[in-house]
Amino acid sequence: MADYQKMYAVLCAAVDDVIGPLEKIPMAMQPVRTLREALLRAEDIYMDTSMYAEKDENGNLLRLLRENTER
């Protein structure tokens, strides 16, 4: 199965790395804003849809939870 979490991390890190140098180019400010907004949207989507397993003391699966849900 594809590791979307790892792909997300690699892509977002690369975009974040190039934003700094691009900010020094006046003509690149609009693309920089677009990239920053896309990073924030991607982070929101990731946080809203990420799931993790809640396990008991024996390591048995109790339930799957989303990142933004209360226990």
Give an overview in words.
The structure is a single chain. The chain has 71 residues and is an alpha+beta fold. It has one domain. The protein is built from 2 helices and 2 strands, in the order H-H-E-E. The protein has a two-stranded antiparallel ribbon with strand order 1-2. The longest helix is centred in the middle third of the chain and has 21 residues. The chain is elongated. The mean pLDDT is 85.
* Count of structural domains: 1
Average pLDDT over all residues: 85
- Given the structure, what is the number of helices? 2
Helix % is 55-70%
Beta-strand percentage? 15-25%
Structural class per helix/strand content?
Answer: alpha+beta
| Low-pLDDT windows of residues | none
Q: Which strand order do you get reading across the main beta sheet?
A: 1-2
The radius of gyration is: 17 Å
